[in-house]
Queue: 2 jobs
Job 1
Amino acid sequence: MRWIHLAVIVIFAAAILIFAAQNLEIVTMSFLGFSVRAPLALLVAIVYVLGMATGGSLWALLRRSLRGSRRGAVQ
């Protein structure tokens, strides 16, 4: 099973490297009047990391709320 996980990680990393190599052109992203010119692969990576951070925070908040509501129901 460890080899399957390793193979999936290697395939995923290869796909990311291929994507980054093929998307080096500069693009413009605008949001709320701000404008950024950067390589597409870099913008995708930044948005991905921001999504992980906000998604992880939301998941932690929901778990904490659920635990808190269970404690309140028991007492």
Note: The helical segments are 2-22, 40-74.
Job 2
Amino acid sequence: MTKKIKMTTPEEKITQLGLSLPSAPKPVGLYQPVVVSGKLAFLSGQLSKAADGKLLTGKVGKDLSLAEGQSAARLAALNALSIMKDLIGFEKIRRVVKMTGFVQTAPDFYEIPAVLNKASELFAEVMGEQGAHARSAVGMSSLPLNAAVEIEFILELK
């Protein structure tokens, strides 16, 4: 008799990690938080905003340390996960295809991938193989509302 292995859902993994997702952020402009086209879902950029609404702001390498930038990336990832859960449903997601990350940096800061690794690691922890993705890491001189990090995602749906 074969033993059936129960897979941990993203919601269960979030609880196991001691995390709580914020409410899905509401758009602050004339755009949709997620647009579905065929089997792809495109998530609008999510900022480094905590559950209490406080934005983690500043330039990494000037106003913020690498560790603070990594915390900002994790906050943005939590906001993206909340949109996936509330507006799509984890059960409808086949995989994360691509993450594009933007980090507001000092001109001489070059550890942009290290900042965004924290967002990628969170997706791997929460979604396992489904969370593994292609990624672009881009340094910016400024971001909306002075946010430290903004990330966007492309998802494949079932």
Note: Residues 36 and 100 are 17 Å apart (CA to CA).
